Amino acid sequence: MTIRVLLADDQALLRSAFRVLVDSEPDMEVVGEASDGAEAARLAAEQRADVVLMDIRMPGTDGLAATRMISADPSLAHVRVVILTTFEVDDYVVQSLRAGASGFLGKGSEPEELLSAIRVAAGGEALLSPTATKGLIARFLAQQDPADEDRDPARAERLESLTVREREVLVQVAGGHSNDEIAERLEVSPLTVKTHVNRAMAKLGARDRAQLVVIAYESGLVRPRVE
């Protein structure tokens, strides 16, 4: 099955470079290019994209607003957004996760990392393993005001619906660990871990693993550590 990729970046040179890279792979193809967020949201629907590589800073509608637009559209529930960032606008990280982004990738990443990120996102996983990403999430969640209106108090209550094992798995997911790593830590099978993750997502109303991380921090289940 070919992964349909949409490129959203206001720099034509970068889009061209990404297109050459993506189209060189037998299991993926670029189905469209957008220079702003509004166009990205429109093309995601028109071109039936599976993954959107989204620049966070674009004129007009930026990547954050575009991610919200895509996530809010039920017909685009299958679309995964990967934010491309230089990590210079750190406060956008948590906001983007809340908006529905599946993860982040630095623009300075190696070509193989970008291709792997597309495959991981298309497979429904979240790009939360890199230390830099986890550090940013923890740092900015730690700075959030408990009275922040963006928080969802109901999520803390929904944690009560999780089983003890589901809570244990959620803590591990928040630490950026893969299913295999969690399985080894909890001495269960990777399939069992995947089942617990899926059930936790359903109970907490999370779009994917990335949002599970945000819920774990915002609900107080996991406390961020600021180095």
TrEMBL record:
The keyword Phosphoprotein applies. CDD domains: LuxR_C_like, REC_NarL-like. Residues 155-220 form the HTH luxR-type domain. One of its GO terms (biological process) is regulation of DNA-templated transcription. The modification 4-aspartylphosphate is found at residue 55. SUPFAM superfamilies: C-terminal effector domain of the bipartite response regulators, CheY-like. PROSITE patterns: HTH_LUXR_1, HTH_LUXR_2, RESPONSE_REGULATORY. Pfam families: GerE, Response_reg. Transmembrane segments: none annotated. Gene3D superfamilies: 3.40.50.2300. Keywords: DNA-binding, Phosphoprotein, Transcription, Transcription regulation. SMART domains: HTH_LUXR, REC. GO terms for molecular function: DNA binding. Residues 4-122 form the Response regulatory domain. InterPro entries: CheY-like_superfamily, NreC/VraR/RcsB-like_REC, Sig_transdc_resp-reg_C-effctor, Sig_transdc_resp-reg_receiver, Tscrpt_reg_LuxR_C, WalR-like. Coiled coil: none annotated. PANTHER family: TRANSCRIPTIONAL REGULATORY PROTEIN NARL-RELATED, TWO-COMPONENT RESPONSE REGULATOR. This is Response regulator.
